[in-house]
Structure formats: structure tokens, C-alpha cells
Specification:
Layout lengths: L4 E4 L1 H18 L5 E7 L2 H13 L4 E8 L11 E2 L10 E9 L3 H7 L9 E10 L10 E6 L7 E5 L5 E5 L1
Parallel strand pairs: 2-3, 2-5, 5-6, 6-7
Antiparallel strand pairs: 1-9, 3-4, 8-9
Helix pairs in contact: 1-2
Length: about 170
């Protein structure tokens, strides 16, 4: 029997994303613009919410970013942007859950072929099972879970969100 436990309701998710948005504003206060690379699907939704919050204070570029999460080595990374456009820019890679750091490592890899001013990582939920040397700079909730447990982030079409542990 699969039992899901609600760990963040919609209100809590949006409170955390608001806090993260203001942390990003503080971190990028000298920057005119920021590029948000949202890993599909939920990372892009989270990046969209963040850019909606800070978009009137800073020029934000929301870029969908697709990576094969099951096989990031063989899969193509796709984004609607020329990587050269990121030279001397601040880039924030956004995802819903950071587990081992593997996906975020492969997501950052193409950014190393150009010269961004700074690269930051933002996640809604950070699990403490890192196997790769990537840590999130902006975190909504840190959790110590077992390897058998899973975190599920669900968004509906109106950006209503819930986070479950199962």
C-alpha cells in the first residue's frame, strides 16, 4: 500500500518560493538581468513562479531546459537559447527536488562551455543524499530522508502546488 504524506501544502510552497525570490533579489542586486533555466516540467513551473514574483524588479529571462533525467549522459539537453547568450550573465538553474545531485550536475555541464558571470542552483526541496558535488544555493525545504523514500511535487494548471513524501 503506497501512502503519501503531505509535507507542504499550496500555501507553504508559495511562502517558500516567495522567500527564495527575495533571496535571489538580494543575491543579484547588482545585476540588470537574470536567466532562469527551469528543468522541465516542475523546475520550469517553479522558475515561472519566481520570475512572476521578481519580474517587476529585475529583467528575467525564463528558459525551458530539458534533460533526460533517466539517462542524462546519452540524452540531448535542449533549451530555447544560444549558450553564447549566457556569457557574462547570471544564470539560475531551477528544479523541484535535488536528490543525489546527478541531474543538476549534468544540467550545469553545458553552461561550462561558455562564461556566465555566476551560476546558482535553486530547488524547492533538497534531500541530503548527495553523490555529486552540487549543492543548491536557494532551498525551500531541506529534508533528511531514506533512499527508499521519494519526494513528489505536484502542480496543477493554476500553479497550485503540493509536496508529498512517499
Amino acid at each position: 500500500m503506497d501512502q503519501k504524506t503531505l509535507i507542504l501544502d499550496n500555501k507553504a510552497v508559495h511562502q517558500k518560493l516567495n522567500r527564495i525570490a527575495y533571496q535571489i533579489l538580494e543575491d543579484t542586486y547588482k545585476e540588470q538581468e537574470v536567466y532562469f533555466l527551469g528543468l522541465q516540467e516542475n523546475g520550469h513551473t517553479i522558475a515561472s513562479i519566481i520570475t512572476d514574483i521578481i519580474g517587476d524588479q529585475k529583467q528575467c529571462h525564463l528558459i525551458p531546459f530539458t534533460i533526460d533525467k533517466k539517462n542524462p549522459v546519452k540524452g540531448d539537453i535542449q533549451m530555447n537559447l544560444n549558450l553564447e547568450d549566457l556569457n557574462d550573465k547570471t544564470v539560475i538553474v531551477c528544479d523541484d527536488v535535488a536528490n543525489t545531485g546527478r541531474i543538476l550536475s549534468y544540467a550545469i555541464k553545458p553552461l561550462l562551455s561558455v562564461y556566465p558571470k555566476k551560476i546558482r542552483v535553486m530547488v524547492l526541496v533538497d534531500r541530503k543524499h548527495k553523490k555529486y558535488p552540487v549543492s543548491a544555493d536557494f532551498v525551500g525545504l531541506s529534508l533528511a530522508t531514506t533512499m527508499q523514500e521519494h519526494i513528489t511535487v505536484e502542480f496543477d494548471n493554476n500553479h497550485q502546488a503540493k509536496v508529498y513524501l512517499d
